[in-house]
Amino acid sequence: MGLSKRKGKQAALAGIKAQQRFEANLVALGNKLMKQLQESDQLGVVLFSRSYMSQDAGANLGIAEKLAQLGVVPIPLDFLPLASVDPKEYSDRPYWLYESKHIAGAAITASEPRLYGLALTNFGCGPNSFILKILEDIVGGKPLGQLEIDEHAAEAGIVTRLEAFVDTIKGYARSAEQHGVQRKDVYRGTTAYINSKKLLLLPRMSPHAEVVAAAMEACGAKAVVLPEPDERDLLYSNQVTLGTECLPYRVTLGSFMRLYYEDG
Q1: What CATH topology corresponds to 12-175?
Q2: Where is the DUF2229 domain (predicted)?
């Protein structure tokens, strides 16, 4: 690019500082909104979504404007002081950046009486199917809305669902006792240490699963690849899911359930 290493480093540092100032300004705006909520009888709705979804009125069909018209205050996730929460208190190993953000936002939402959450998703996105279950546990009994938006979503249907959601949270706010974060068991991942006495089950999510299992066996671990999934897996997982989750989520869960119930 015709720049020296020194100038490149200076530009990168300047960009990082600008981003940090921007993020600090977002949290400051969020603090102002929280003060506004505390001084009024309004409720805030935190938009749990990736920024490119929650901040694009075209992509989300003007969700923020519609919520404001219904008398609640829409709050982007990044407006919350997410850095004040350690996601590892709720999930052993948050794998995705937005998983950490969502977990921190859910903890804040659960602890603030005037805040409620609305999750915006697209196309049954895989990571969201896993993350939303954790969010539901964190917010406890508080209503957590979920809205999936794609090119087939009709605006009239979106408005109807938003109206129902706002009615729900307003009713909850009038009747519910104030409560803090509902502490749940931490979502634990498998141990990072090889233990030949334990059996590691690998979902057959790709042809490479057999290679991964063989590599683990070579390192002293006991690993087994689950059978090829079929309709039985979905029959099992459909008993404990809403049906709106992505197919990989339901197949993976169903594979574990099938092994448990059929092979013990």
Answers
A1: Rossmann fold (3.40.50)
A2: 2-79
* Beta-carbon contacts of residue 103 (< 8 Å; ≥ 6 apart): 85, 87, 90, 91, 94, 131, 134, 135, 138
What is the total residue count of the chain? 264
Q: Cα dist. 235→93, 161, 227, 229 in Å?
A: 29, 28, 15, 11
For the chain, the structural domain boundaries read 12-175, 199-263
Q: Give the Cα separation of 44 and 132 in Å (integer).
A: 19
Nearest residue to 138 (alpha-carbon basis) of 164, 122, 117, 121: 117
Query: Tens place of pLDDT for every residue, the chain, 264 residues?
Result: 677 888 989 999 999 999 999 999 999 999 999 999 988 889 999 999 888 888 888 778 889 999 999 999 999 999 999 999 998 888 877 778 888 999 999 999 999 999 999 998 876 666 677 788 888 889 888 899 988 876 666 777 889 999 999 999 999 998 855 554 455 555 656 555 566 677 888 988 888 999 999 998 888 888 889 988 899 999 999 998 877 778 888 898 999 999 889 886
